[in-house]
Amino acid sequence: MPIRIPDALPATDLLAQENIFVMTEYRAMHQDIRPLRVVLLNLMPTKVATETQILRRLSNTPLQVEITLLRMASHAAKNVSEQHLDTFYRTFEQIEHEHFDGMIITGAPVERLEFEDVDYWPELCQIMEWGATHVHSTLHICWGAQAGMFFHYGIQKHELEQKMSGVFRHRRIVDKVTTPLLRGFDDMFWAPHSRYTEVRTADIEAHPKLDLLAVSEEAGAYLAKSSDDRNIFVFGHPEYDRYTLGNEYERDVAKGMFPQVPKHYYPNDDPAQPPYSFWRAHAQLLYTNWLNYYVYQTTPYDVRLAGGKEDRAL
Question: Which SUPFAM superfamilies does its entry note (predicted)?
Answer without folding.
Answer: Class I glutamine amidotransferase-like (SSF52317)
